[in-house]
Write a structure and sequence with these properties.
heterotrimer, A mainly alpha, B mainly alpha, C alpha/beta, A: mainly alpha, 12 helices, 66% helix, 0% strand, B: mainly alpha, 13 helices, 2 strands
């Protein structure tokens, strides 16, 4: 019968280290969930690629200003001398690509596309991350409370989530931007106010998704023995929530946040596409697609492909990374 | 079972009622937020104070919001008379009001745009359900083969591309560059079925690309999970052919959740596929809603929102009831 | 103030009209009877339709398919205010006068339609018309002078019949005009004390074939005003029934060669032949096609494609093709030979709200005049062909009275930054300021707005763009000065074209300080310069058209140099094309560069 001593990589603490003498203590060191997840993630090449792209995008978003001034371009300046007046298209081939304008220029206005893409990344990242933050905070709070306390509280909160899910999402978001979006909050300036409004609206419409998932997870966690034990020891609900349940939810929260971010990126792009995203002349990938769709994409396809590709790469990177993260954290999944 | 259905029906009614109240409240706040009164919007171009006053009487806009809401709900069931002496209009049930812009009953506007949305939803949903689940099942069965990797790669692309981008690319290549299909322009199915299908082909493909991708991923995950279950191992151990195992046991368990999601997605789509309609220039309910919002045509906005919410809630109901048939535990939750 | 879906119209004096008007009689422009010289057919080359007739043919029959991206605002002749809708009215509404059916300048004349000859007046205030006999409505009932009087009375009922031009109210009100532009002394035939609903005292109908107007001031252009659709006769009993009034627009009664068959609001209209129309007493209509089907298609690219593939025949909105079709047409010689590039007679401009700070200071306004880039605006609208010529004044070169001057020389339309900054210093804002800029949310509207925003940013003026829906832009979005002021909209993108081709009204509703209305306003800049108000009065009262033209030129100068409240950007042009099924196509200058629909036939 094989001794249990030479089993490696188990989550439980190795006990008879002292007995082993010659065996390296390292070989039987226990690993926490986080470490296991990290190991699995490292092995997933595709997810790593996604992760690297995500980090790159975040850096681009943060350093948008630096990058575009390095390229020597202003995202808002018109260059009508680069546009053929009768066709409204850029004069050069491939949408006007040149050493000055690495990704070409926009039709009609002649604005540099490269710097607008870079600034667009910033807009997408800011709105998506902040909105995800809003969703997660509200969703986790509601989900945990509903799942843990059950009863009437759960009924009410679940109905609330049902109600929100019953609203036609995009329609309401658009209408709300029209209602609120024109006003200006003191001290923020109009562009930032609009971003604030978008973050709140996108975040607010997405939280029921997280809420439901967290509620489900909390429900199953609640039945675990160590929760019962804590309760019988006299721990207050707050303490249980914060010390026992939430830490165990970190995994799912992380995974679903990462998976919600691309949804929010697409949501913001959709709102911009329909004309209710960030205010012009701020750059947004969705707004560029919207402009291209109005009679320009047939004669200057580059203007459609570049922002589309930007969206595609961003979303797929987040999806790959999120998928990998989920697989890494869930020991039962086999790909 | 009946009890469960009744409980859910009550929930539906309550939800619709709350949705209508919230929508009504918000959309009557729009004019005061933007500085115009509903009467002015209703009165059309260059209205004089007389016109505005006449409009206010006709549509009861001077009443308090709850009273107006009451009239609105009443109108849905029995219709409404709008009258200020000189100008009378009758709005048959279900009366969702009159459009500000062209003075037609909102319900008629929705109904006349409905065929487009229905055609879009019907065709696309069948295409994506069949394609998505087939690809998903096959991928699961041929796990880790080239087919699987390619299909899942494509599926990932599908869920990562915004539908308007896919739509624009399709239009550019297939319609503009290669001229294989004409520019998308809706033709009614009763007018010319062949033309109807030809014109809707590109929007269907765009929608299918997105949704089939989603469903392929879901189906594959579901199949893999089901195939790993004990009872499948038992069935195999009993000596059933692999085919039997899959078709009699695995598929049913794997596909049931898919069907419920399908119901929900279809419900959403019936409320108006806004992005698709906008990209392809199809005048369906989604397009109507966007237009109405930008024109501040409140009655139409109200009407479309309620309409869309109804489909979502109704689809939820149907799906829940179906699920209750399949999984008895649900009835008692 | 005639509108297309993008442009708001006033009146602009146009060359030939005034030359013809100089023929001595006190009625301006009404000299010709219909017919006159036969216009020569055009070779089918680029722009042939602006001077001649394309594909001239007498062939009768067939169905023409009309298409546009929006329905007419109204089909009721008293309520419609879109240029292309006035053109459509020529198919089923005949009024006392009508525009001559000819390309080029002779299409600017008003010729008698239901009248036997142009109206005459001994004093410019009392005008008499005699009706032709044998005119019938589509149901066979006879048309009398009373129907014409009733039709004009309807305009007075602005609470029911609103939306159209209100000149008849201004000149026929038995009492003074109130502050909202209405007539308190007569409120229309639905509130009429006369049991026959003919209680307007300023119009006399001594017999069934005679009608006399008693205007409250001298109006030399009355024949032109009678060429507006409002002088179309309306059946009294039908209009007083529940199907009339506000619902008359769903089926107006025809006096022309076609009548309504089926109509679905916002979607489609079918016109079929009207058996009661008599070609013998019609000055120019030929009624070639058997049927006309008009469909609404919200997708502009789709419309262009359908025309180019001959599935639809005529884009009746007349605002020109989209960039994709423009590229196709200009790069393909065969297509280019079929296309026309008319001057529409409209001026696209930026209105500066003079009551929104800091634009109450003329130097801040002048800063905008110098800082804008008219070239970028032109490119945004489609370049020299699709957009038009860079403008230096509000009146454009086709107008008599036009004087070539540039009050704000700006480096060929690119803007003079140094002068702009100097003006900013003088108005106390050396570092610029922030304001709101209103425009339409359609493709060209947004592009124009971002172009203005980028140009003004160069001198530190930050524009926040407010976009309004095209269908309600002029009437509601920028039509209430109080709202514009509350939202800080200092700059408003607008377009303006001619109601009828003489001098009155273009500048009037645009800059007459006494015509600032609380709703449905057209004086967006809230200009109120006593000097200009005076000059307008002088011009209207002038009986010599040349003198009037000269005064309008002075008004333009005064407006630009002293008030600077309007910034002219382009003199509008459009690139238009029909399908290959269309015959007899020519451009009507009086209808803003749109094809004359009543003349078109099918091959």
């Amino acid at each position: 019968m094989t001794a249990p001593l030479d089993v490696q990589g188990s989550a439980t603490e190795a006990q008879p280290e002292a007995v082993l003498g010659g065996v390296e203590a390292k070989a039987i060191e226990g690993r926490s969930l986080g470490q296991i997840a990290w190991m699995r993630l490292k092995r997933d090449k595709v997810a790593i690629v996604g992760g690297v792209v995500v980090i790159l995008l975040i850096l681009v978003a943060i350093f948008a200003g630096v990058i575009s001034s390095l390229a020597g371009q202003d995202p808002y300046a018109y260059h009508s001398n680069l546009i053929d007046p009768n066709y409204s298209t850029p004069k050069g081939g491939w949408g006007g690509i040149s050493w000055d304008h690495l990704l070409g220029v926009e039709p009609v206005s002649g604005r540099d596309i490269f710097s607008r893409i870079v600034y667009g990344a910033r807009v997408s990242m800011i709105i998506a991350f902040l909105a995800t933050g809003v969703s997660v905070i509200i969703g986790v709070a509601v989900g945990v409370v509903a799942g843990y306390f059950g009863g009437i509280v759960d009924q009410l909160l679940s109905r609330l989530m049902d109600l929100l899910l019953a609203f036609p999402l995009l329609l309401f978001a658009i209408a709300l931007v029209y209602v609120i979006g024109d006003s200006s909050l003191v001290g923020l300036g109009d562009n930032n106010t609009r971003i604030f409004v978008l973050v709140i609206i996108i975040g607010f419409f997405n939280w029921p998704y997280i809420g439901r998932i967290i509620r489900g997870q909390t429900l199953s966690l609640r039945e675990k023995e160590y929760i019962e034990a804590a309760r019988s020891l006299g721990a207050s609900p707050t303490r249980i929530l914060f010390r026992e349940i939430l830490p165990n939810l970190v995994g799912p929260i992380l995974v679903y946040s990462t998976l919600i971010i691309p949804t929010n990126i697409l949501f913001e792009a959709a709102l911009s596409f329909l004309g209710v995203g960030v205010r012009p002349p701020q750059a947004s990938w969705g707004a560029m697609l919207s402009d291209a769709s109005q009679g320009l994409f047939q004669i200057d396809p580059e203007y459609m492909i570049v922002p589309g590709a930007a969206l595609f790469i961003t979303v797929i990177a987040f999806n790959l990374f999120g998928d990998g993260l989920r697989d890494a954290l869930d020991p039962r999944s086999n790909r | 079972m009946i009890q469960y259905i009744i409980r859910r029906l009550i929930l539906v009614v309550v939800l619709m009622w709350v949705v209508s109240m919230v929508t009504f409240a918000i959309f009557f706040l729009i004019p005061s937020a933007t500085g115009t009164s509903p009467a002015v919007l209703f009165a059309g171009k260059a209205p004089t104070p007389d016109t505005i006053a006449a409009v206010e009487v006709k549509f009861g806009l001077k009443d308090s919001i709850p009273v107006q809401y009451g009239h609105f709900v009443e109108g849905i069931f029995v219709g409404r008379h709008f009258d200020n002496g000189a100008d009378k209009s009758y709005c048959p049930p279900p009366c969702l009001g009159f459009s500000f812009v062209n003075n037609q009953p909102v319900w008629e506007e929705i109904v006349s745009d409905l065929p487009v949305t229905l055609s879009l939803a019907a065709g696309a949903s069948i295409m994506w359900l069949v394609t998505g689940t087939a690809v998903g099942v096959l991928s699961a069965l041929k796990r880790r083969t080239i087919f699987d990797r390619a299909a899942m790669g494509l599926a990932l692309a599908g869920v990562s591309l915004p539908i308007y981008f896919t739509g624009l690319v399709l239009l550019d290549l297939i319609s503009y560059k290669w001229g294989i299909l004409p520019n998308v322009h809706y033709v009614g199915i009763t007018d010319n079925p062949l033309s109807w299908a030809r014109n809707l082909l590109l929007p269907w493909i765009a929608l299918t690309f997105l949704y089939a991708a989603l469903y392929a991923r879901l189906t594959r995950a579901g199949m893999l999970e089901t195939m790993g279950e004990d009872y499948i191992r038992t069935a195999r151990a009993k000596g059933l052919t692999e085919r039997r195992v899959i078709t009699r046991h695995a598929l049913r368990a794997a596909l049931t959740p898919i069907v419920t999601i399908f119901g929900l997605d279809l419900g959403q789509l019936l409320g108006g596929a806004i992005l698709t309609e906008y990209t392809f220039g199809l005048i369906g309910v989604g397009h109507l809603s966007i237009d109405a919002i930008s024109r501040q045509d409140l009655p139409v906005i109200m009407g479309v929102t309620l309409f869309a919410a109804f489909f979502i809630v109704f689809a939820n109901l149907v799906v829940d009831v179906l699920y209750a048939f399949v999984d008895p535990r649900v009835r008692y939750s | 103030m005639r509108r297309t879906s993008l442009v708001r119209y006033g009146t602009v004096a146009t060359a030939m009209a005034l030359l013809v008007a100089g023929c001595g009689s006190s009625s301006s422009g009404g000299g010709n009877q219909g017919g006159g010289e036969k216009p020569k057919p055009a070779q089918n080359v680029f722009n042939a339709g602006t001077t001649g007739i394309r594909n001239a043919s007498d062939h009768k029959g067939g169905t023409l398919n009309f298409i546009a991206d929006g329905d007419c605002d109204y089909w009721d002749p008293a309520r419609t205010y879109y240029g292309f809708c006035w053109d459509m009215q020529r198919l089923f509404s005949r009024g006392l006068m009508a525009y001559n059916a000819a390309p080029g300048d002779s299409g600017l004349n008003a010729v008698p339609d239901l009248a036997t000859e142009a109206g005459t007046s001994p004093n410019g205030k009392d005008w008499t018309y005699h009706l032709k006999s044998g005119i019938k409505f589509e149901d066979g009932s006879p048309v009398t002078s009373k129907n014409i009087k009733y039709g004009i009375e309807r305009v007075f009922a602005q609470s029911v019949i609103n939306g159209g031009p209100t000149y008849v109210i201004t000149f026929l009100c038995p009492g003074p005009i109130n502050t909202s532009g209405g007539c308190d002394a007569y409120k229309g035939p639905y509130a009429d004390k006369d049991p026959n609903h003919l209680g307007l005292s300023t119009i006399d109908t001594p017999d069934d074939n005679t009608i006399v107007f008693h205007l409250n001031k001298v109006v030399g252009d009355w024949n032109y005003i009678m060429a507006l659709p409002a002088s179309t006769p309306v059946p009294i009993a039908y209009d007083q029934s529940p199907k009339g009034g506000a619902h008359y627009t769903d089926h107006p009664y025809s006096t022309g060669p076609y009548k309504f068959d089926t109509y679905t609001a916002g979607k489609s209209l079918t016109l079929v032949r009207n058996a009661m129309w008599n070609q013998g007493n019609d000055p120019f209509r030929k009624a070639l096609p058997d049927k006309i089907v008009f469909t609404v298609d919200a997708n502009d690219d789709d419309i262009d494609q359908r025309i180019l593939t001959n599935i639809a025949d005529v884009n009746i909105s007349g605002t020109g093709v989209q960039p994709t079709a423009q590229a196709k047409i200009l790069s393909n010689p065969t297509l280019k030979a079929r296309a026309d590039n008319p001057v529409t007679g409209a001026t696209r401009y930026l209105a500066i709200e003079s009551k929104v700070a800091p634009f109450d200071n003329v130097h801040c306004r002048r800063a905008v005049q110098y800082a804008v880039s008219k070239v970028d605006w032109q490119t945004a609208r489609g370049g020299p062909i699709g957009g038009g010529q860079v403008a230096t004044s509000m009146l454009n070169p086709t107008v008599k009275g036009f004087v070539q001057f540039d009050a704000y020389p700006d480096d060929n339309g690119n803007g003079d930054i140094a002068k702009a900054k100097d003006e900013l210093k003088q108005c106390g804002k050396p570092n610029g300021f922030t304001t709101h800029l209103a425009s339409q949310n359609s493709g060209k509207g947004t592009r124009v707005a971002t172009a203005v925003q980028a140009a003004l940013k160069r001198v530190g003026i930050n524009c926040i763009i407010d976009l309004g829906n095209a269908a309600t832009y002029y009437s509601q979005f920028i039509g209430a000065p109080a709202v514009n002021r509350a939202k800080g909209r200092g700059l408003l993108v607008a377009g303006w074209g001619a109601d009828w081709p003489t001098g009155y009204g273009f500048f009037s509703s645009l800059i007459d300080g006494r015509k600032i209305l609380p709703q449905g306003n057209s004086n967006y800049s809230e200009t109120n310069d006593p000097k200009i108000n005076d000059m307008i009065d002088q011009a209207v009262a002038a009986t010599d058209p040349n003198k009037a033209a000269q005064i309008w030129g002075e008004v333009d100068k005064q407006l630009m140099t002293e008030d600077a409240t309007l910034v002219p950007m382009t003199w509008d042009k459009a690139l238009v094309i029909n399908s290959q099924n269309v015959t007899n196509a020519y451009i009507m200058l009086s209808l803003l560069g749109i094809y004359d629909f009543q003349a078109l036939g099918h091959v």
